[in-house]
Design goal:
Layout: E1 2-5, E2 9-16, H1 21-34, E3 39-49, H2 51-66, E4 71-74, H3 78-86, E5 94-95
């Protein structure tokens, strides 16, 4: 997993899973704490995430809210969009451009 960017926009790539969660959490929390306004999380380079990775995203979302910021997801890959819909998290998280639920293949 790799994360690059600053306190306004981060690009996450590789796998966000139990093995990379602690490092990702540290970077995301620092970005939230050090900035103002929206924090854009570009997931277009993300290969996969597991429940732990999704928990890291949700933790950053909650932390951003407590800091008066908003976490915005950009470039969410289709398989991860399906997971957000299945867990109904697409209703909670800010997703740039939204998710076209009707266009996602049924699983």
């Amino acid at each position: 997993m790799h994360i690059r960017g600053d306190h306004a926009e981060l690009v996450v790539g590789g796998r966000l899973d139990v093995h990379s969660a602690a490092d990702a959490r540290t970077v995301l929390h620092s970005a939230v704490d050090d900035g103002v306004g929206d924090l854009v999380l570009d997931l277009s380079e993300l290969d996969s995430w597991d429940a732990t990775g999704l928990g890291v995203i949700m933790g950053a979302h909650r932390r951003a809210g407590r800091c008066g910021r908003r976490l915005v997801l950009r470039g969410v890959p289709p398989q991860m969009q399906r997971l957000l819909v299945a867990t109904r998290l697409h209703r909670i998280l800010a997703i740039e451009g939204g998710i076209g639920v009707e266009s996602l293949p049924r699983v």
